[in-house]
């Protein structure tokens, strides 16, 4: 167990808080631990099943931290510590894609990069989709919505074209959930 000796906030903005903790390890050695605190988020798997097959909706956008455009499931948060997870997921889905879902199934709550960041991410499966008008945030003005066949999506995952760990984790979770639901 690691014990916190002291903690101080070193940075804060609307989306993120960074703190530096002085810690003591079980062996008695002290050190510094940097922690990024973020409010809860949601990631949504928008799944459409038609006579033509199964499709997912993805977002392509520029991610500043890695300096490139990337493909991922719709995801995000509301910068609120206390939030109804399903309401947030529905809001993020509508905001980024214009989609509304008849059914939302909460698959799990995961921790994102918990070696450095304290943020929960609620994983939802969205079904019974209806297209409407997207309402992206100012930071999301370059979003492109993609409707992709599931086989093509899985090829993109395996080929490394999709590198977002949250998207990969959400899809793996969905696959396990689906297999258990069939049993």
Automatic annotation (TrEMBL):
Record-given protein name: GDP-mannose pyrophosphatase
Catalytic activity of the protein: GDP-alpha-D-mannose + H2O = alpha-D-mannose 1-phosphate + GMP + 2 H(+)
Family designation: Belongs to the Nudix hydrolase family. NudK subfamily.
GO function terms (MF aspect): hydrolase activity
Nudix hydrolase domain: residues covered: 37-179
Cited PROSITE patterns: NUDIX
Cofactor requirement: Mg(2+)
Pfam families: NUDIX (PF00293)
Gene Ontology biological process terms, A to Z: nucleoside phosphate metabolic process; ribose phosphate metabolic process
PANTHER family: NUDIX HYDROLASE DOMAIN-CONTAINING PROTEIN, UDP/ADP-SUGAR PYROPHOSPHATASE
Keywords: Hydrolase
Matches recorded under InterPro entries: NUDIX_hydrolase-like_dom_sf, NUDIX_hydrolase_dom
Superkingdom assignment: Bacteria
